[in-house]
Amino acid sequence: MSLIRIIDANKKYPNGVTAVYDVSLSINKGEFVFIIGSTGCGKSTLVKMIYREVKPTSGKILVGGVDVAKLRNSRVYKIRRKIGVVYQDFKLLNQSTVYENVAFALEVLGLPKSEIHPKVLKALDLVGLKGKVKQYPNQLSGGEQQRVAIARAIVNGPKILICDEPTGNLDEKTSFEIMKVLEEINKLGTTVIMVTHDHEIVEKMQKRVIRLDAGRLLKDYSEGTYQNESN
Amino acid sequence: MKAIRILGRSIRDSFKSVFRNFALSLASISCIVITLIVVSISIILTYNVNNFATLVEKDVTIVVFLDTDVTDDEIRDIEEDINKLSNIETCTFQSKTEIASDMMESSSELKAILEQYTDETNPLQDTFKVKVTDIEKIKDVADAIKEMDKVSVVKYGEDMIEQLVSVFDIVKNVSIGMVIALILVTAFLISNTIKITIFSRRRQIEIMRLVGASNLNIRIPFIIEGFFLGALGSIIPIVATCYGYTALYDNFDGQLFSPFIKLIEPSPFIYQISLLLLVIGVMVGMIGSALAVRKHLKI
User: Fold this and answer.
1) What is this structure's pTM?
2) Interface predicted TM-score (ipTM) of this complex, two decimals
């Protein structure tokens, strides 16, 4: 059974722009999926609908069997606990240490300290930042900050990890380091959905690729079949 | 257990953020300090005016002079009739002999004059001293007593009392209105200042939403922070009120301009005001914070 099913999703913003137009797709548990397309083609809107930052104008968004489109705003936090999200701009608390930033995600769930501590260290270990727990985000490089954000996103063991252009601000070498981390997380069983326009990464990874164009699903390449057609 | 842990962390986080965002916290606190001082001053004024008004009103007495040829039976009848009227608090009889001896005790000159009379020739009149419960209706009572037999004169300082009553009423209403208006203005000012504080931390709220904190979960630390800001902000006004009012009271010897206008004694008055200021500060801080966060939550 698929973990995520999007059925005829449409999103029209109040300003009249239609960002997503009749998109239907399904993503299975444990998959690694790239969503690509030019700027403004609706790829961010599409993933935002999955973690219910954006409500579709029509259509269904089933995540683990629950239609998140019908979720009330006051209930959104329930789906957020099952989905980790990583952004281009990291979104870290600059006044908190690396450890605090990651622990924060578990503290809001009300976990006891004795459970938080090992989980945070495990997550930081996975992203390769175990040695920097006491540093503040602005003392880290961009790649390291992004890894903190990834650690925070995965620390409570979500089933889905959504990355919205996680390498957008990073150089090529750092980007591949991040990709290695994401691949590692995917191998441990987490479904990873990554929005990007970095063709090089997409080509090299050879995963499933969903290409959007002007809000429509243009092509769905299964694993290993993607070729860069934009060149 | 989970709720307690979340509450504990909220308290810890709100402590931290008061200090980490110290400049903005200071802005909120100073706003609270200034407005609470103004609130405190107006409360002190209102209570003192009210106190003074009540003291004066309590002192107001209708004096009923009876005819000189009144008999004991008639006196009893009049007393009964007066007590039958509504709005009577007390009614005490004073015979002319008692009045004479009181007067003789009060000054030697009066004593010299009154000693020339015997009980029979006493020129004074038997009187009733009547106190009313509702001073605004004192005129009705006085008029009713005037109608009775064997009553010669009824006095209660008509003009002065009526003017005083209306002046006190105006002062009372205006000052109560002012206190309420001030509290509302304070709430508005503080919630605006806190809004600025929270606007600068919308990123934190965004991240909390991102990692799956429920709305209540996000609000609690901010509300507790509002509580701390309110409590911290009320310290200076409370100290200023306690020391300021005590100093004022001692300086004027407990009375303003004349012994007629008495100030309220500092204890327990200042403690009541302090408690009130703390409650206003804390409530306004908490409500201000809750409203300000609401804007950044998608509810």
Assistant:
1) 0.69
2) 0.80
